[in-house]
Amino acid sequence: MLENIAIILLVVIILIMLLVKWVTPATPNYVGTGPQPAALPYTLEDFCAYHSHLVLSPFEEGGARFLFDVKLPDADDTIDMIMLAKSGAYVFEHAKAQGWISGMEDNEKWTQHIQVGYGGKSTERKFPNPVITVNGKTKALRKFLDNDGIHVRSIVVFPDFCLMSNIKVFNPNVRVVTLNQLLPTVVALNGKTGTNITQRDLNALFDELVEYEVIPQEEFE
């Protein structure tokens, strides 16, 4: 008798589990580099310079200045974000991708592998190589600065729900990171060169570049 009841209960539990799996909508699995947060402060659609600015805001205490959506003269693309610090200028590109990210520095396209649903098959999607994109914008900034004494570096930022599974970038002035890796990465880069420009020159450069913001500072804030 007890064995029959146990078998019936087991069957009921299995049916309930199958029912829950069947009615639950498929959602992308979390594939970040750390434990899954309770709620991310953004979605893929609104991942932008705003979140990088929040992460890097401690640099403002040391005199750093930030610019957003900068369209330089004769440049084809708008720069997502620029941070001017005493150690130099940093150009940021925000990649709207998800899943496992792979790509080579000189590949035309990179790949994102996305697993949908519990136990579902992963899908492969291609997107433009963000390193090529940010290098083009960095080149435009270097041309605008026309000053070899200012270090200029490029940083590609992915959302936290990405995993850099196979990224090969050999340029020492380029970094590819997720948002939760951004602060320690910039701290390390900032400490490599020490002071490169004075605060006075930094502020003067900011005043010159702010004229080329597509969205004025007040509106961004």
What would the keywords be for this entry?
5-stranded mixed beta sheet; globular; 4-stranded mixed beta sheet
Task: Describe this structure as you would to a colleague.
The protein is an alpha/beta fold and 221 residues long. Helices cover 34% and strands 27% of the residues. The chain has helices at residues 2-23, 49-56, 130-145, 179-193, 199-209, 217-220, and strands at residues 65-70, 79-85, 88-94, 99-104, 109-115, 122-128, 152-158, 162-168, 174-178. It is globular, with a radius of gyration of 23 Å. It starts with a helix and ends with a helix.
Question: Which regions have little confidence, pLDDT < 50, spanning 5+ residues?
Answer: 14-38
Biggest beta-sheet profile: 5 strands, mixed
Strand content: 25-35%
Mean pLDDT: 80
Counting DSSP H or I runs of 4 or more residues, the number of helices is: 6
Fraction in helix:
25-40%
What sort of overall outline do the alpha carbons produce when their principal axes are compared?
globular
